[in-house]
Design goal:
By secondary structure, the chain is of the alpha+beta class. The chain has a domain of 167 residues: Thymidylate Synthase, Chain A. The protein is 28% helix and 25% strand. The protein has seven helices and ten strands. A six-stranded mixed sheet has the order 1-2-8-7-6-5. Strands 3-4 form a two-stranded antiparallel sheet. A two-stranded antiparallel sheet has the order 9-10. Helix 1 packs across helix 7 and helix 2 crosses helix 6. The longest helix is centred in the C-terminal third of the chain and has 19 residues. The radius of gyration is 18 Å and the shape is globular. The two termini are 27 Å apart. The mean pLDDT is 98. It binds 5,10-methenyl-6,7,8-trihydrofolic acid and the ligand O=c1ccn([C@H]2C[C@H](O)[C@@H](COP(=O)(O)O)O2)c(=O)[nH]1. The site of 5,10-methenyl-6,7,8-trihydrofolic acid (MHF) has 14 residues, from helix 6. Belongs to the thymidylate synthase family. Bacterial-type ThyA subfamily.
């Protein structure tokens, strides 16, 4: 996970002071990429302890098409609490766009089912994309998508995935985002009888909030441990049939957690 630490260091050393929507203030750089070979282990940050539990439940929740935080709350995951309305709704965020992108004719498109069908039947396609940036619906979303599109690529029996993220909270968001899409790549690969290849993360506004600077500096004093491995314990019938218990992370050695406040 040296790439992540290098990115953090670059923001600390070269970041430009920028005000932001939350009022917290950031230092920021623009447009970076990181590559993770999923054959070399699972890219879960080791320089602070991360609980994969929230990340797995959030991904299963996205895949189910749900946009109400009740499922997360029932599973003790609080990461979306601050953005939900009094009924727990977030508007047509990730789950809605992934599973039921509304069309003009009043129908809806299940992009996840579609992309998996294409990976299986047309693996050389250059259109293996899922898009959450539905311009006509942005104003109804509690937060416009940060990770807004991803593309798959099949070669040599391996499935790779490239993510585009417009706005990137280096300390709290990015470790979640890397782990989440790496999980998704493993799951889609398993469903398509492929091996996981690379996960490529691309970020636009890459920032450290002003109240995360000390935490970032502390993290940079720590030596990373070798990456753990991800084990999928069974092959469910479809991408929508995974349950929390299907995932096991093996050999995760990490430094202690570092607390930080989320900017709302
Ligand atoms: N400012 C900001 N940064 C984000 O990363 C972010 C948002 N807002 N809004 C929407 C979602 C919510 N996300 C979140 C929210 C909270 C944590 C967080 O507090 N993480 C703690 C542990 C929390 C837990 O596992 O329960 C951490 O130490 O990583 C992480 C990502 C990612 N997104
Ligand atoms: O998955 C996510 C979701 C959100 N973020 C961060 C990036 C920004 O710090 C905020 C969103 O604020 P905007 O003003 O809408 O850009 O949330 C993330 O890193 N990862």
């Amino acid at each position: 996970m040296q790439q992540y630490l290098n990115l953090m260091k670059e923001v600390l050393e070269q970041g430009v002071v920028k005000e932001d929507r939350t009022g917290v203030g950031t230092i920021s750089i623009f447009a970076r990429q990181m590559r993770f070979n999923l054959q070399d282990g699972f890219p879960l940050i080791t320089t602070k302890k991360l609980h994969l539990r929230s990340i797995i439940h959030e991904l299963l929740w996205f895949l189910s098409g749900d946009t109400n935080i009740k499922y997360l709350k029932d599973n003790n995951v609080r990461i979306w609490d601050e953005w939900a309305d009094e009924n727990g709704d977030l508007g047509p965020v990730y789950g809605a766009q992934w599973r039921a992108w509304p069309t003009r004719s009043g129908e809806s498109i299940d992009q996840i089912t579609g992309v998996i069908e294409q990976i299986k039947n047309n693996p050389d396609s250059r259109r293996l994309l899922v898009n959450a940036w539905n311009v006509g619906e942005l104003e109804n979303m509690a937060l416009p998508p940060c990770h807004y599109s991803f593309q798959f690529y099949v070669a040599d029996g391996k499935l790779s995935c490239m993510l585009n993220q417009r706005s990137c909270d280096v300390f709290l968001g990015i470790p979640f985002n890397i782990a989440s899409y790496s999980l998704l790549t493993h799951m889609v690969a398993q469903q398509c009888d492929l091996e996981p290849g690379e996960f490529i993360w691309s970020g636009g506004d890459v920032h450290l909030y002003s109240n995360h600077i000390e935490q970032a500096k502390l993290q940079l004093t720590r030596e990373p441990f070798p990456s753990p491995a991800l084990k999928l314990k069974r092959k469910p019938d479809s991408i929508f049939d995974y349950v929390y218990e299907d995932f096991e992370i093996v050999g995760y050695e990490a430094h202690p957690t570092i607390k930080a406040e989320i900017a709302v």
